[in-house]
Amino acid sequence: MTCRDRPAIGYVINTYPRPSHSFIRREILALEAAGWAVHRFAMRGDAAQLVDPGDQAEHARTERILEAGPIRLGFEFTRAAVHAPDATRAVLQAVRRRGVRHLAYAAEAAQVAKRVRALGIRHLHAHFGTNSTDVARFAARLAGIGYSFTTHGPEEFDAPLSLRLGEKLADARFAVAISNYGRSQLCRWVDHRHWERIHVIHCGIEPARFPDPPSFPVARPLRLVAIGRFSEQKGFLALLPALAAARRHADIRLTLVGEGELRPAIEVLITTHGLQDAVTLTGWLDEADVRSQLAASHALVLPSFAEGLPMVIMEAMAQGRPVLGTAIAGVPELVRPGETGWLVPAGDEVGLCEAMIALAATPVEVMARMGLNGRARVLAHHDVTAEAEKLGALFTAACTRPAA
After folding, report:
1. pLDDT band at 343 (very low <50, low <70, confident <90, very high)
2. What's the pLDDT tens digit per position in 358-380?
3. Which distant-in-sequence residues (6+ apart) come within 8 Å of 96 by Cβ?
4. DSSP H helix total and E strand total for the chain
5. Do the strands 279-283 and 299-302 form a parallel or antiparallel pair, or are they unpaired?
6. DSSP of 328-347, one letter per residue?
7. Cβ atoms of residues 7 and 123 within 8 Å
8. More confident position, 317 or 98
9. Which domains does the chain have, with CATH numbers?
10. Coil, strand or helix: which one is 145?
């Protein structure tokens, strides 16, 4: 199939773009560079949080379904009931099993289905196996096309039964996990005969944005950077006490890049442990500034309690920086102890403290060598162009199947 022959694909995401979802943007752009036409459907936007020019441009390219308003959404669902009664009946049966909240998803899906028909879209793909996949699933049924979805974790793996992952896996054309760990979790909730439709496609980086890695900093003190949303799953509330304990043995500085609901609690811990001169809070930064923070650091620290496979690990490794992370989810698939970084049990503040002390005592040349090992690994396994090619092959196969 040539680029000119490729059918249009619709992407469905709940809130898009967001600062923490740049991996979706990269995937879409890589697909478009390969000749795919991709239309972005988001239920809502988050423009006030966008600081990166790439995210701002993506916001302008995205159609936000809820902006149609409740009257229009209700009208489209009523019209779907007239023109596609069997499909609407099937959607309503699913809504009854799931609860009244899913009636809103069905109305959103009716609007998406209308736009799918108008744009000639042949397949829908959702990111996250949560309500965005519900909308894609209902819209695909109403429009008479197929759908697929990518799971990331940890949200989907926290509530697989209430999200009915098994049902979604059973009638999707295919499903994507971003790590082997993620695929194993999906396999738990679907019959073995459906395992073959679950594929591992990594989130990717753009190698061209990471030419020769920046010079490794040689000056002390040890400088660590942590990047992520200030939420309970990222483990920053455990990192700060561990850092305070480690600083009794070594001079360590930390930059925290991100924002979120736990910022007040983080600020309290910084004061409580006397870390005002050791910790810098930057807020959200654009991609160029994130790369600058990584370049100025000796290592990335990621103390997460729950994860998928964080993009920030890939970005740190691409810049030749080792990683101190927790041994959860897909993280060990990239972070290899003694080779590309350090791993500690999630929630183990003592282990995290000891690892930071060990990191501070590690010779710069050893850290630099581990960083280069990580760079080689991530460039080999997480090139967004190669991963988008795999995804495109799945779209091609899905679009050639007859409608259900």
Report:
1. very high
2. 999 999 999 999 999 999 999 99
3. none
4. 16, 13
5. unpaired
6. -TTGGGT--BTTTEEEE-TT
7. yes
8. 317
9. 3-204+383-399 (3.40.50.2000), 208-381 (3.40.50.2000)
10. coil
**Alpha-carbon span 313 to 378, nearest angstrom:** 9
**Cα–Cα distance, 39 to 116 (Å, whole number):** 9
Q: What is the structure's pLDDT at 102?
A: 80
pLDDT band at 3 (very low <50, low <70, confident <90, very high): very low
Listing from the earlier edge strand, what are the strands of the sheet with 279-283? 279-283, 252-257, 222-227, 299-302, 323-326, 341-344
Indicate whether 153 pLDDT > 90: no
DSSP letter for each residue of 264-322: HHHHHHHHHTT-TTTEEEEES--HHHHHHHHHT-SEEEE--SS-S--HHHHHHHHTT--
Confidence of residue 325 (pLDDT cuts 50, 70, 90): very high
From CA 220, how far away is CA 196, in angstroms rounded? 50
Distances (CA, A) of 73 to 63, 65, 140: 14, 9, 16
CA–CA separation, 173 vs 148, rounded Å?
A: 6
Please check whether residue 225 is in contact with residue 250, taking contact to mean a CB–CB distance below 8 angstroms.
no
- Mean pLDDT, residues 18-41 taken together: 94
Structure tokens at 393: 């092959």
